[in-house]
Design goal:
The protein contains 10 helices and 3 strands, in the order αββααβααααααα. It is mainly alpha-helical.
Length: about 180
């Protein structure tokens, strides 16, 4: 479509807003000491791109005295949040440039922030491009797949792996670390 030729420019302009040091109205503190970073952001973009952040922002509206809204996200590392924030602003994410463990962290962060379009995309990428890695790291991946009800594709993939290669998984030294509930 000819009309879509302007989307890359819009996306780039929105990404440039992230570097704006004057008009931001939200600070987001991510990570746990000593790995904490504060990101500047914009309420209107966060409100429309993340239902989770929208909920937080609706209870912490900016006060008329010019005070910024401050959000804490200790469960997400600064490196992963930087990737997610670029996705939120620019609508682009190329998972090919990350190793599988980073992609899993992106998936978990997307789930926490309720980024519904990113969750199936990330799961599909892992299954279609990192199946060997999932198999080699099966126990932690299996456990991760049950951390969220939105990881159904990953759960199905892991369950199929168990049915096809049960002896390999049951003989794994990590097998006993699978919670009873997950099994």
């Amino acid at each position: 479509m000819a009309g879509n030729k302007f989307l890359p420019i819009l996306s780039q302009n929105l990404l440039e807003i992230l570097d704006d040091e004057e008009y931001y109205d939200v600070t987001i503190e991510v990570g746990i000491d000593p790995y904490v970073k504060i990101f500047r952001s914009h309420m209107v973009i966060l409100n429309y791109r993340s239902p989770y952040l929208k909920k937080i922002l609706s209870t912490n509206k900016k006060k008329n005295d010019g005070t910024l809204v401050h959000i804490k996200l200790p469960n997400i590392s600064p490196e992963i949040f930087q990737i997610i924030l670029k996705y939120i602003y620019g609508g682009k994410l190329s998972l090919e440039e990350f190793d599988a463990s980073y992609v899993v962290k992106i998936l978990v962060a997307a789930s926490e922030l309720n980024l519904q379009e990113l969750i199936p995309y990330t799961q599909s990428f892992l299954i279609n491009n990192q199946a060997d890695w999932i198999e080699q790291n099966f126990i932690p991946m299996y456990q991760t797949s049950f951390e969220s009800d939105s990881f159904l594709e990953l759960q199905k993939f892991c369950t199929e792996l168990i049915s096809k290669q049960s002896e390999k998984i049951f003989n794994s030294p990590d097998f006993t670390s699978i919670s009873e509930r997950t099994l």
